[in-house]
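User: I'm writing a tutorial on reading structure tokens. Could you give me a worked example: one chain, its sequence, then its tokens, then a sentence or two explaining what the tokens reveal?
Assistant: Sure. Here is the example chain.
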Amino acid sequence: MKIDDKAIEEIRNSASISEVIGHYIPIIKKGHNYVALCPFHDDHNPSLSIAEDKKIFKCFVCGKGGNVFNFVMDYTKCSYPEAIIEVAKIIGKPLDIDYKKPQKVSKYQRYYDLMQESIKFSNYALLTYAGEKAMDYLLRRGIQKEMIDYFEIGYNPGGEVLGRYLKKKGYSDADLETAGVCRIGDYGMHDIFAGRITFPIHDENGNPIAFSARAFEEGVAKYINTAETKIYHKGDIVYNFHRAKKEAKRADRVIVCEGVMDVIALKRANITNAVATLGTACTPKQLKLINALSRHFVFFYDGDKAGRVATMKACEQAYSLGYEPSVIVNDTDMDPDEILTRGEAKDLRDVTSKEITGIEFAFEYYKDLYPFHSYSNRKAYMRKLSALIAFIKSDYDRQNFYHELVSITGLPLENEKQAKKEYNIMRQQPQMKKETLDGLTKAEYTIIKQTMTSKKALDKFRRELGCLYSEECERLIEEVIDDYRRYGDIDAARLLDEISDDSIKDLLIKIEMTEEIGSEYKEDIFEGAILKVKETIKKARLEDLKIKIKETSGAKMSEYLREYTDLIKELGGKRNGR
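And here are its predicted structure tokens:
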């Protein structure tokens, strides 16, 4: 069903672009407008600018920009009608229409469907007699039916019953092996997770792709995960991402654990913004996904020695990639699940409130590695910490930590310059594009911007100039004139929806977001811009006439000569290029 144009305009006019963008990513108020880390490139310093009054956003590094619908389309990878519907929901004006989203079929959809069938079967098996022991184990751990349903926990009874079930559903041996649920050997088919409790793993879009499977009896490995498959790459996956997404954005905080039981424990304590790296060392892809949930991410690993080592490695990886993590002070020598099992939900919530920066954690962590009983240890401690502190973006925070480091060790900061050099190298990233406008470009941008805000400017342009020199600028001002004709005024956000050419859209956004071009109509500035464009057009015509005079003769050449002479006089006797 087509969405009515009036409804679209009402939604666009009613929507606060900062509110809508803030629904998806954290934004920071800056003056009258807002900035944010751009989600469309690997951004570490906020380069996305949001102009609330113009209802336009623009990234000055990667160039992405547009109105509120464009952001939703680019961020969620949806169509224009879907973006309108989504914006309407966000601003509390849902559209009463029957719109069916076009279904995109992934090339891996067969394996996603196979995994969903496996989840459904395993969940059912847990509730049968075959899963009685597994269910008793979960109940003893405090995991009730509500949590089982929420996390789709199941049980693989063994005896190859899952494989046989899937084959009856039409899946081949090759499908089962490719998805990583069965192994086909010389002695037939074998269910990989036989006799284990299964915890489904999903990708960031919610597609089921793997299992983490736990033994509940002694004598075997506690956990095994699906091996690498076409749809599962363990270093690219963050467990519970799709469920934690909304709450993490709302709270602007995400808690990062090691395993599935930790995430479940936090959920039982009513903490729903937790994810897990599934026991792997944090990879760059995982950190990027975590940072997409919130720039404020907090590591909450086990409190034992191995957990502290894993926490420090994760922090160092995060800092090296330009993120600034925090750490929950877990001095219990237990993991989150054990804290809840041995205590109460309040105990776990209390621990999660004890948060420090990753640098503060490093100060304490490396004291254990380098006890200060010798000069060499203090020097090693100094070098380790100073290199890590160099990654902090805030000059104020960085200098304070350097001062604290000098105070603690009693040593001068001998490598501060080197640390800063390393910092600058590691933090190197695409910079904001600061384009210097030449005289003609600035003049044409000024004409376009001022005609968009003043009918008087538009009338003056049409009387005294009528066209622009640049082809793209000329096409844009034609769109502006057409919009005036249709609506009687100009709305940049509306105009963006009506322009079909992406290059002209980009030009409009660029002009609107260029601060050195004033939008308020000022007659002297406007007249100066018109004179600049006129001069450029006349000079271009002079060059054209030079060629024509050489190539023609007789009456036509005399005509060109007269025009050439008249233009020279108009330009003040200056012969451009002669």
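What the tokens reveal: Residues 109-229 form a domain with the DNA primase DNAg catalytic core, N-terminal domain fold (CATH 3.90.980.10). Residues 523-551 form the longest helix (29 residues).
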